[in-house]
Amino acid sequence: MIPVPLVRRLLRMKVKVSRNRLLQIAALVLLLAGIFAFLFMYFENVGFYTAFYWAVITMATIGYGDITPQTEAGRAVAMVAAVAGISTFTALVSILAEYFISSSLRRMMGMHSVRYSGHYVIIGRGSSIPSCVGELMSAISSGEIEMRPIVVVFPDESERKKVELPEEVEVLIGDPTNPETLERAHVREASYVILALEDDSKSVFTTLMVKRMSKAKVFVEALRGESMELLKGAGADRVILSRSLAGRLLASSVFEPEVVDVIDDLTTAAGGYDISVLKRRDLWGIPYVEAMKRLHDEGYFLLGYYKEKPVLSPALDEEIPEGSKLIVIKPGSSSGKR
């Protein structure tokens, strides 16, 4: 009696083959090659491997001539095999060409899928996207974060045309509120998802879907202060109120423009200096002033530490708490220092 799991597996295979023209033609080629091989083996009295080799070479119309039929029946099989081979191999090649052309067109249009794991996914529109990609790539180059693929999802082709992204960045086109788009970006296996949709209602909906599909950390750009609680409630791990920050910087430009220049430099890894965090177990438990001296010798300037919240410029004799991260200023990629 045939086991039930085997029957189910065979039925699933039958369904897949019935839906895939490429598999159908390939199966037909193998079936015909097997039939012609058995007939040739029977009429010409040769081994199966030799007969199968002859059948494939004849059906492909290569015809090396190293094996030829010696009987009338064998010659009849050869003629039928040649005609059948022309038909089936032509169909197989045309389907393969159609598949590759279709795949190339889908990639050009951003309608393809990716199968990365642990990658960064950036979804959105506007000037935030190239800035975000540039910062991630600078951090990857400097070793601050792991080297992982970056996938950018634009809502439409017009947004894609507005920005120039490095060739190594995978670009997809699709509605971020559509689960199919998130599936194509393989959000399920992503490590981080960044949303900059310039529409807080879409950001809330997309955050809910991403969190339902994936365990990735989700960072979201919000435009309105009242949206922050909604986004956090939807599962966002961090929400950045971009326009509020931009407004404060614009106001500071009036009376302290130098501070704005410093902030702009410190918030990009490509600037002269970069603000960063270090996890240094060897500095836990020692006075802040001693940690400052050691880090200064290594090219860092210690600002404070982070443990649940940032603590800047603590008392010089205060010990660095265990488990904390150190907030430092370090030379950026354009400073010429290392």
UniProtKB/TrEMBL annotation:
Its transmembrane ranges are: 21-40, 46-64, 76-101
The cellular location(s) given in this protein's UniProt record come to: Cell membrane
Top-level taxon of origin: Archaea
What does UniProt give as GO cellular component? plasma membrane
Main subcellular localisation: membrane
The cross-references to SUPFAM superfamilies, in alphabetical order and at most eight, read: NAD(P)-binding Rossmann-fold domains, Voltage-gated potassium channels
- PANTHER family to which the protein is assigned, alphabetical: POTASSIUM CHANNEL PROTEIN 2-RELATED-RELATED (PTHR43833), POTASSIUM CHANNEL PROTEIN YUGO-RELATED (PTHR43833:SF9)
**Would you tell me the protein name for this molecule?**
Calcium-gated potassium channel protein
